Amino acid sequence: MKILVAAKRVIDPENLNKIKLSPKGELDSTGLEQKASPYDEYALESALRLTENATNTKQRLGEVIVATFGPKSSEVMLRAMLGTGADRAIRVDATDDNLDAGVVASGLKALVDREKPDLVLLGYQQAEHESNEVGQRLAGLLGWPQATSAGSIESENDVALVVGREVEGATAKLRVRLPAVVTVLDKIVHPKSVVSRHTPAGHAYPDGVRFAALMAIMAAKKKPLTELALADLTRETPRVRYAAAELPPRRAAGVKVKSVSELVTKLKTEAKVL
Question: What domains, with CATH codes, occur in the chain?
Fold first, then answer.
């Protein structure tokens, strides 16, 4: 199976509380660590599990390509992904000002037309703006079946996938024939969430994503990393722009009350919730 994984470099979500705003409402993330959007890391882990026998994860039984739309500095993220097991990487030179969901979906369609993968995997949303559009837009442009919010994937001989799609209070089982587009949730990296045709039945992976050892990252420097211009893939221009941001108002300090009756009085007269 040939799988294309789309990844986006974002500010480490654990550092979001350190972002500052300019007087004009512009985000200032200077000095903050950047990494792959966590859900895109889950997509990569899913791709690796689908293209290997879990008893020998060093042998790739298929091909995994990771692609990103970003500046030169995002190649650090791609090299790390190559170190975990991906075979090739593609960087489409772009800045966030050049991109929105429509541009990325259009560019990915052009990449799919070039690479002819059997499956495209993405995180179900982007960590920065929590947008949830690219996978659906891409499937629409390609005319491919899609499964969103996937918590489990089982390969049927690499011809079709049985996808456990998380819905309100339940899991919907979908069978999609390849080629297809699938977006994944964090549940996809649970020990038995991905079942490959190559892996013995009942195998349980360690919970979470794998990390590349230093030697693997060094070896990844020899793996192919192709650079493309955005204009080589699409003529689309952004239709959505983030004009400004503002921090929520600071909360007032809490007040201690001496009795239940005083609490009830304050809820009625001050908070006005009773």
Answer: 2-269 (3.40.50.620)
